[in-house]
Protein backbone atom coordinates (compact mmCIF):
# COMPACT_ATOMS: atom_id res chain seq x y z
CA UNK A 1 0.00 0.00 0.00
CA UNK A 2 2.84 2.36 0.95
CA UNK A 3 4.47 1.75 -2.45
CA UNK A 4 1.31 2.57 -4.35
CA UNK A 5 0.98 5.84 -2.45
CA UNK A 6 4.45 6.83 -3.66
CA UNK A 7 5.59 9.96 -1.84
CA UNK A 8 2.12 10.77 -0.61
CA UNK A 9 0.62 10.15 2.83
CA UNK A 10 -2.82 9.21 1.55
CA UNK A 11 -4.46 7.95 -1.62
CA UNK A 12 -6.78 10.96 -1.72
CA UNK A 13 -3.77 13.27 -1.68
CA UNK A 14 -2.05 11.27 -4.41
CA UNK A 15 -5.20 11.20 -6.53
CA UNK A 16 -5.69 14.97 -6.21
CA UNK A 17 -2.12 15.62 -7.29
CA UNK A 18 -2.13 13.21 -10.20
CA UNK A 19 -4.94 15.05 -12.00
CA UNK A 20 -2.69 16.64 -14.65
CA UNK A 21 -1.77 13.08 -15.61
CA UNK A 22 -5.22 11.48 -15.27
CA UNK A 23 -6.77 14.22 -17.43
CA UNK A 24 -4.09 13.69 -20.06
CA UNK A 25 -4.95 9.98 -20.10
CA UNK A 26 -8.67 10.77 -20.34
CA UNK A 27 -8.10 12.85 -23.48
CA UNK A 28 -5.36 10.72 -25.06
CA UNK A 29 -6.15 9.91 -28.71
CA UNK A 30 -9.56 11.58 -28.49
CA UNK A 31 -8.77 15.15 -29.65
CA UNK A 32 -7.85 15.23 -33.33
CA UNK A 33 -7.58 18.20 -35.73
CA UNK A 34 -10.10 20.40 -33.98
CA UNK A 35 -12.53 17.57 -33.47
CA UNK A 36 -13.31 14.89 -30.91
CA UNK A 37 -13.24 11.18 -31.65
CA UNK A 38 -15.05 8.91 -29.17
CA UNK A 39 -14.97 5.39 -30.56
CA UNK A 40 -17.58 4.10 -28.11
CA UNK A 41 -20.17 6.65 -29.24
CA UNK A 42 -19.60 7.17 -32.93
CA UNK A 43 -22.21 4.67 -34.17
CA UNK A 44 -24.86 6.21 -31.91
CA UNK A 45 -24.30 9.94 -32.43
CA UNK A 46 -27.10 10.22 -34.97
CA UNK A 47 -29.62 8.62 -32.59
CA UNK A 48 -28.47 10.87 -29.75
CA UNK A 49 -28.83 13.99 -31.94
CA UNK A 50 -32.43 12.99 -32.64
CA UNK A 51 -33.31 12.38 -28.98
CA UNK A 52 -36.12 14.42 -27.53
CA UNK A 53 -34.08 14.88 -24.34
CA UNK A 54 -30.89 13.70 -22.68
CA UNK A 55 -31.18 12.56 -19.06
CA UNK A 56 -28.11 12.42 -16.82
CA UNK A 57 -28.41 9.81 -14.08
CA UNK A 58 -25.96 9.14 -11.24
CA UNK A 59 -25.30 9.44 -7.50
CA UNK A 60 -23.03 11.62 -5.36
CA UNK A 61 -19.95 12.95 -7.08
CA UNK A 62 -20.87 11.35 -10.41
CA UNK A 63 -24.19 13.22 -10.36
CA UNK A 64 -22.31 16.45 -9.59
CA UNK A 65 -19.96 15.88 -12.54
CA UNK A 66 -22.97 15.49 -14.83
CA UNK A 67 -24.49 18.67 -13.37
CA UNK A 68 -21.26 20.50 -14.24
CA UNK A 69 -21.51 19.23 -17.81
CA UNK A 70 -25.19 19.99 -18.26
CA UNK A 71 -24.91 23.66 -19.37
CA UNK A 72 -22.51 23.04 -22.23
CA UNK A 73 -24.21 19.84 -23.36
CA UNK A 74 -27.42 21.89 -23.66
CA UNK A 75 -25.55 24.69 -25.38
CA UNK A 76 -23.73 22.52 -27.92
CA UNK A 77 -26.48 19.97 -28.63
CA UNK A 78 -29.56 22.20 -28.42
CA UNK A 79 -31.30 19.24 -26.74
CA UNK A 80 -32.97 19.68 -23.31
CA UNK A 81 -30.85 18.00 -20.63
CA UNK A 82 -32.47 16.91 -17.37
CA UNK A 83 -30.83 15.61 -14.20
CA UNK A 84 -31.80 12.59 -12.11
CA UNK A 85 -30.38 11.28 -8.87
CA UNK A 86 -30.72 7.55 -9.48
CA UNK A 87 -32.52 6.81 -6.21
CA UNK A 88 -35.03 9.61 -6.74
CA UNK A 89 -35.79 8.47 -10.29
CA UNK A 90 -36.50 5.00 -8.93
CA UNK A 91 -38.59 6.29 -6.03
CA UNK A 92 -40.77 8.29 -8.44
CA UNK A 93 -40.64 5.81 -11.28
CA UNK A 94 -40.20 8.97 -13.37
CA UNK A 95 -41.21 8.86 -17.03
CA UNK A 96 -38.53 7.75 -19.50
CA UNK A 97 -39.32 7.23 -23.18
CA UNK A 98 -37.77 5.45 -26.14
CA UNK A 99 -36.99 8.87 -27.68
CA UNK A 100 -34.75 9.66 -24.67
CA UNK A 101 -31.01 9.21 -24.34
CA UNK A 102 -30.14 8.28 -20.75
CA UNK A 103 -26.51 8.88 -19.77
CA UNK A 104 -25.40 6.91 -16.69
CA UNK A 105 -22.37 8.26 -14.86
CA UNK A 106 -20.55 6.09 -12.32
CA UNK A 107 -16.89 5.86 -11.37
CA UNK A 108 -17.19 2.27 -10.19
CA UNK A 109 -19.86 1.18 -12.64
CA UNK A 110 -21.28 -0.90 -9.78
CA UNK A 111 -23.44 1.52 -7.78
CA UNK A 112 -26.70 -0.29 -7.05
CA UNK A 113 -29.02 2.71 -7.44
CA UNK A 114 -27.46 3.66 -10.77
CA UNK A 115 -27.64 0.07 -12.07
CA UNK A 116 -31.29 -0.27 -11.02
CA UNK A 117 -32.07 3.01 -12.79
CA UNK A 118 -30.24 1.64 -15.84
CA UNK A 119 -32.42 -1.47 -15.91
CA UNK A 120 -35.47 0.78 -15.57
CA UNK A 121 -34.39 2.97 -18.51
CA UNK A 122 -33.57 -0.10 -20.63
CA UNK A 123 -37.03 -1.46 -19.85
CA UNK A 124 -38.53 1.83 -21.09
CA UNK A 125 -36.65 1.63 -24.38
CA UNK A 126 -34.27 4.58 -23.96
CA UNK A 127 -30.83 4.60 -25.56
CA UNK A 128 -28.51 4.01 -22.58
CA UNK A 129 -25.00 5.48 -22.56
CA UNK A 130 -22.42 4.70 -19.86
CA UNK A 131 -19.66 6.95 -18.54
CA UNK A 132 -17.46 4.93 -16.19
CA UNK A 133 -13.92 4.47 -14.97
CA UNK A 134 -14.20 0.70 -14.76
CA UNK A 135 -13.72 -1.41 -17.85
CA UNK A 136 -15.85 -4.56 -17.68
CA UNK A 137 -18.10 -3.15 -14.93
CA UNK A 138 -21.81 -3.95 -14.92
CA UNK A 139 -22.53 -0.42 -16.16
CA UNK A 140 -20.12 -0.83 -19.08
CA UNK A 141 -21.65 -4.19 -19.99
CA UNK A 142 -25.34 -3.29 -19.67
CA UNK A 143 -25.37 0.06 -21.52
CA UNK A 144 -25.78 0.22 -25.32
CA UNK A 145 -22.64 2.30 -25.75
CA UNK A 146 -20.41 4.62 -23.75
CA UNK A 147 -17.10 6.20 -22.93
CA UNK A 148 -14.49 5.10 -20.39
CA UNK A 149 -12.99 7.99 -18.46
CA UNK A 150 -9.56 6.29 -18.18
CA UNK A 151 -8.64 8.18 -14.98
CA UNK A 152 -6.77 5.20 -13.54
CA UNK A 153 -7.71 3.28 -10.41
CA UNK A 154 -9.21 5.49 -7.69
CA UNK A 155 -8.72 4.15 -4.16
CA UNK A 156 -9.73 7.00 -1.83
CA UNK A 157 -13.42 6.81 -0.93
CA UNK A 158 -13.68 10.50 -1.78
CA UNK A 159 -13.78 10.73 -5.55
CA UNK A 160 -11.39 13.39 -6.87
CA UNK A 161 -9.61 12.57 -10.11
CA UNK A 162 -12.63 10.64 -11.42
CA UNK A 163 -14.75 13.79 -11.00
CA UNK A 164 -12.54 15.94 -13.22
CA UNK A 165 -12.15 13.16 -15.81
CA UNK A 166 -15.92 12.64 -15.87
CA UNK A 167 -16.44 16.35 -16.64
CA UNK A 168 -13.85 16.21 -19.41
CA UNK A 169 -15.45 13.11 -20.94
CA UNK A 170 -18.86 14.76 -20.89
CA UNK A 171 -17.35 17.90 -22.45
CA UNK A 172 -15.96 15.70 -25.22
CA UNK A 173 -19.37 14.01 -25.59
CA UNK A 174 -21.02 17.44 -25.94
CA UNK A 175 -18.45 18.40 -28.59
CA UNK A 176 -19.06 15.16 -30.50
CA UNK A 177 -22.86 15.43 -30.31
CA UNK A 178 -22.78 19.08 -31.43
CA UNK A 179 -20.19 18.51 -34.16
CA UNK A 180 -22.79 18.79 -36.95
CA UNK A 181 -23.61 22.44 -36.11
CA UNK A 182 -21.74 25.03 -38.16
CA UNK A 183 -23.04 27.88 -35.97
CA UNK A 184 -21.04 26.69 -32.95
CA UNK A 185 -17.84 25.66 -34.74
CA UNK A 186 -15.71 28.53 -33.37
CA UNK A 187 -16.99 27.87 -29.84
CA UNK A 188 -16.19 24.15 -30.20
CA UNK A 189 -12.68 24.90 -31.43
CA UNK A 190 -12.08 27.22 -28.47
CA UNK A 191 -13.20 24.49 -26.04
CA UNK A 192 -11.00 21.89 -27.76
CA UNK A 193 -8.00 24.24 -27.39
CA UNK A 194 -8.99 24.73 -23.77
CA UNK A 195 -9.08 20.97 -23.24
CA UNK A 196 -5.54 20.58 -24.62
CA UNK A 197 -4.30 23.23 -22.18
CA UNK A 198 -6.21 21.89 -19.19
CA UNK A 199 -3.57 19.55 -17.65
CA UNK A 200 -1.10 22.47 -17.54
CA UNK A 201 -3.68 24.71 -15.84
CA UNK A 202 -4.51 21.95 -13.36
CA UNK A 203 -0.82 21.68 -12.49
CA UNK A 204 -0.87 25.45 -11.83
CA UNK A 205 -3.90 25.36 -9.55
CA UNK A 206 -2.34 22.51 -7.54
CA UNK A 207 0.31 25.02 -6.41
CA UNK A 208 -2.41 26.40 -4.09
CA UNK A 209 -1.80 23.39 -1.82
CA UNK A 210 -0.01 25.41 0.90
CA UNK A 211 -2.57 28.20 0.73
CA UNK A 212 -5.42 25.71 1.14
CA UNK A 213 -3.66 24.14 4.10
CA UNK A 214 -3.51 27.60 5.72
CA UNK A 215 -7.17 28.14 4.98
CA UNK A 216 -7.95 24.72 6.49
CA UNK A 217 -6.08 25.74 9.67
CA UNK A 218 -8.30 28.79 9.98
CA UNK A 219 -11.44 26.65 9.59
CA UNK A 220 -10.44 23.70 11.75
CA UNK A 221 -12.86 24.44 14.60
CA UNK A 222 -15.80 25.78 12.64
CA UNK A 223 -19.08 23.90 12.83
CA UNK A 224 -20.30 24.56 9.35
CA UNK A 225 -19.37 25.86 5.92
CA UNK A 226 -21.47 27.19 3.04
CA UNK A 227 -20.38 27.17 -0.61
CA UNK A 228 -22.19 29.39 -3.12
CA UNK A 229 -21.93 28.81 -6.87
CA UNK A 230 -24.06 29.31 -9.96
CA UNK A 231 -24.03 28.59 -13.70
CA UNK A 232 -21.15 26.30 -14.62
CA UNK A 233 -20.06 26.31 -10.99
CA UNK A 234 -23.27 25.38 -9.22
CA UNK A 235 -21.91 21.83 -9.42
CA UNK A 236 -18.59 22.99 -7.94
CA UNK A 237 -20.46 24.30 -4.89
CA UNK A 238 -22.28 20.97 -4.41
CA UNK A 239 -19.18 18.87 -5.01
CA UNK A 240 -16.90 21.06 -2.86
CA UNK A 241 -19.36 20.84 0.02
CA UNK A 242 -19.72 17.07 -0.46
CA UNK A 243 -15.93 16.62 -0.25
CA UNK A 244 -15.69 18.59 3.02
CA UNK A 245 -18.68 16.73 4.47
CA UNK A 246 -17.59 13.21 3.61
CA UNK A 247 -13.92 13.30 4.63
CA UNK A 248 -13.53 16.21 7.08
CA UNK A 249 -16.83 15.28 8.77
CA UNK A 250 -17.81 18.95 8.90
CA UNK A 251 -21.29 20.11 8.05
CA UNK A 252 -21.09 21.88 4.71
CA UNK A 253 -23.70 22.82 2.19
CA UNK A 254 -23.40 23.71 -1.47
CA UNK A 255 -25.99 26.27 -2.56
CA UNK A 256 -27.14 27.89 -5.76
CA UNK A 257 -26.23 31.56 -5.32
CA UNK A 258 -29.45 32.55 -7.09
CA UNK A 259 -31.37 31.01 -4.18
CA UNK A 260 -29.46 32.94 -1.51
CA UNK A 261 -32.23 35.45 -0.84
CA UNK A 262 -34.82 32.71 -0.61
CA UNK A 263 -33.65 31.40 2.76
CA UNK A 264 -29.88 30.84 3.23
CA UNK A 265 -29.24 34.58 3.77
CA UNK A 266 -30.77 34.20 7.24
CA UNK A 267 -27.77 32.09 8.27
CA UNK A 268 -25.18 34.77 7.51
CA UNK A 269 -23.26 36.20 10.46
CA UNK A 270 -19.66 37.03 11.39
CA UNK A 271 -18.76 33.45 12.28
CA UNK A 272 -20.13 31.18 9.53
CA UNK A 273 -17.51 30.81 6.77
CA UNK A 274 -18.92 31.17 3.25
CA UNK A 275 -17.01 30.30 0.11
CA UNK A 276 -18.29 32.17 -2.95
CA UNK A 277 -17.18 30.92 -6.36
CA UNK A 278 -16.85 34.00 -8.56
CA UNK A 279 -14.53 33.11 -11.41
CA UNK A 280 -14.94 35.01 -14.66
CA UNK A 281 -17.92 33.91 -16.75
CA UNK A 282 -21.35 35.20 -17.78
CA UNK A 283 -22.53 35.07 -14.13
CA UNK A 284 -19.62 37.12 -12.78
CA UNK A 285 -21.47 40.38 -12.16
CA UNK A 286 -24.29 38.50 -10.41
CA UNK A 287 -21.72 36.88 -8.13
CA UNK A 288 -20.18 40.30 -7.42
CA UNK A 289 -23.57 41.43 -6.25
CA UNK A 290 -23.93 38.30 -4.06
CA UNK A 291 -20.56 39.13 -2.47
CA UNK A 292 -21.69 42.70 -1.78
CA UNK A 293 -24.89 41.48 -0.14
CA UNK A 294 -23.01 38.98 2.03
CA UNK A 295 -20.47 41.65 2.89
CA UNK A 296 -23.22 44.06 3.92
CA UNK A 297 -24.38 41.41 6.40
CA UNK A 298 -20.83 41.02 7.75
CA UNK A 299 -20.44 37.52 6.32
CA UNK A 300 -17.13 35.70 6.83
CA UNK A 301 -16.22 35.55 3.14
CA UNK A 302 -13.76 33.44 1.20
CA UNK A 303 -13.96 34.25 -2.52
CA UNK A 304 -12.64 32.07 -5.33
CA UNK A 305 -11.90 34.26 -8.34
CA UNK A 306 -9.86 34.28 -11.54
CA UNK A 307 -6.23 35.41 -11.28
CA UNK A 308 -6.15 39.23 -11.36
CA UNK A 309 -9.76 39.68 -10.20
CA UNK A 310 -9.06 39.95 -6.45
CA UNK A 311 -9.56 43.72 -6.31
CA UNK A 312 -12.86 43.60 -8.19
CA UNK A 313 -14.38 40.78 -6.14
CA UNK A 314 -13.21 42.08 -2.81
CA UNK A 315 -12.82 45.87 -3.07
CA UNK A 316 -12.48 46.51 0.64
CA UNK A 317 -9.89 43.76 1.07
CA UNK A 318 -12.24 42.38 3.68
CA UNK A 319 -12.41 38.80 2.47
CA UNK A 320 -9.96 36.00 1.93
CA UNK A 321 -9.33 35.41 -1.78
CA UNK A 322 -8.34 32.23 -3.62
CA UNK A 323 -7.10 33.11 -7.12
CA UNK A 324 -7.30 30.35 -9.73
CA UNK A 325 -6.16 30.23 -13.36
CA UNK A 326 -8.85 31.10 -15.88
CA UNK A 327 -9.79 28.61 -18.61
CA UNK A 328 -12.70 28.33 -21.07
CA UNK A 329 -15.84 29.07 -19.01
CA UNK A 330 -17.36 25.59 -19.41
CA UNK A 331 -14.09 23.92 -18.31
CA UNK A 332 -13.65 26.16 -15.27
CA UNK A 333 -15.37 23.62 -12.94
CA UNK A 334 -12.39 21.29 -13.50
CA UNK A 335 -10.07 23.99 -12.13
CA UNK A 336 -12.34 25.32 -9.39
CA UNK A 337 -12.95 22.00 -7.67
CA UNK A 338 -9.25 21.44 -7.02
CA UNK A 339 -8.82 24.04 -4.22
CA UNK A 340 -11.95 22.55 -2.65
CA UNK A 341 -10.48 19.03 -2.83
CA UNK A 342 -7.26 20.33 -1.25
CA UNK A 343 -9.22 22.14 1.46
CA UNK A 344 -11.22 18.98 2.28
CA UNK A 345 -8.02 16.93 2.38
CA UNK A 346 -6.14 19.30 4.71
CA UNK A 347 -9.16 19.83 6.98
CA UNK A 348 -9.40 16.06 7.39
CA UNK A 349 -5.73 15.64 8.26
CA UNK A 350 -5.80 18.60 10.67
CA UNK A 351 -8.96 17.35 12.35
CA UNK A 352 -7.40 13.91 12.71
CA UNK A 353 -9.89 11.88 10.69
CA UNK A 354 -9.36 8.96 8.34
CA UNK A 355 -8.75 10.45 4.89
CA UNK A 356 -9.07 7.42 2.65
CA UNK A 357 -11.75 5.53 4.54
CA UNK A 358 -14.19 7.96 6.15
CA UNK A 359 -16.47 6.43 8.75
CA UNK A 360 -19.69 4.80 7.53
CA UNK A 361 -18.80 5.11 3.83
CA UNK A 362 -17.83 2.60 1.14
CA UNK A 363 -16.06 3.28 -2.13
CA UNK A 364 -18.75 1.53 -4.06
CA UNK A 365 -22.32 1.41 -2.73
CA UNK A 366 -23.57 -1.92 -4.03
CA UNK A 367 -26.80 -2.08 -2.03
CA UNK A 368 -29.92 0.00 -2.51
C1 LIG B 1 -17.71 10.46 -3.81
O1 LIG B 1 -16.73 11.17 -3.15
C2 LIG B 1 -18.56 9.66 -2.97
N1 LIG B 1 -17.81 8.72 -2.23
C3 LIG B 1 -19.86 9.13 -3.56
O2 LIG B 1 -20.73 10.23 -3.60
C4 LIG B 1 -19.82 8.47 -4.95
O3 LIG B 1 -19.53 9.43 -5.93
C5 LIG B 1 -21.19 7.81 -5.24
O4 LIG B 1 -21.39 6.79 -4.31
C6 LIG B 1 -21.29 7.27 -6.65
O5 LIG B 1 -20.30 6.33 -6.90
P1 LIG B 1 -20.02 5.86 -8.38
O6 LIG B 1 -19.47 7.02 -9.13
O7 LIG B 1 -19.03 4.75 -8.26
O8 LIG B 1 -21.32 5.42 -8.96
Report on this structure.
- One of its GO terms (biological process) is protein N-linked glycosylation.
- The protein is an alpha/beta fold and 368 residues long.
- The protein contains 14 helices and 12 strands.
- Strand 5 (100-106), helix 6 and strand 6 (127-132) form a beta-alpha-beta unit.
- The protein is globular and about 55 Å long.
- The mean pLDDT is 96.
- It binds 2-deoxy-2-amino glucitol-6-phosphate.
- 2-deoxy-2-amino glucitol-6-phosphate binds at residues 59-62, 106-108, 111, 114, 157-159, 246, 364-365.
- 2-deoxy-2-amino glucitol-6-phosphate (AGP) is lined by residues 59-62, 106-108, 111, 114, 157-159, 246, 364-365.
Structural class: alpha/beta
Number of helices: 14
- Name the beta content range: 15-25%
Question: What is the distance, rounded to the nearest whole angstrom, between the alpha carbons of the first and last residues?
Answer: 30 Å
How much helix is in the residues?
A: 40-55%
In N-to-C order, the SSE pattern is HHEEHEHEHEHEHEHHHEHEEHEHEH
Bound molecules: 2-deoxy-2-amino glucitol-6-phosphate
Biggest sheet strand line-up = 4-3-5-6-7
Report the strand count: 12
Query: Can you tell me the overall shape?
Result: globular
User: What Rg do the Cα atoms give?
Assistant: 20 Å
- Low-confidence segments, given as residue ranges, are none
* Overall residue-averaged pLDDT value: 96
Sheet with most strands: 5 strands, parallel
Catalytic activity: D-fructose 6-phosphate + L-glutamine = D-glucosamine 6-phosphate + L-glutamate
Pathway: Nucleotide-sugar biosynthesis; UDP-N-acetyl-alpha-D-glucosamine biosynthesis; alpha-D-glucosamine 6-phosphate from D-fructose 6-phosphate: step 1/1
GO molecular function, one term: carbohydrate derivative binding
Protein name: glutamine--fructose-6-phosphate transaminase (isomerizing)
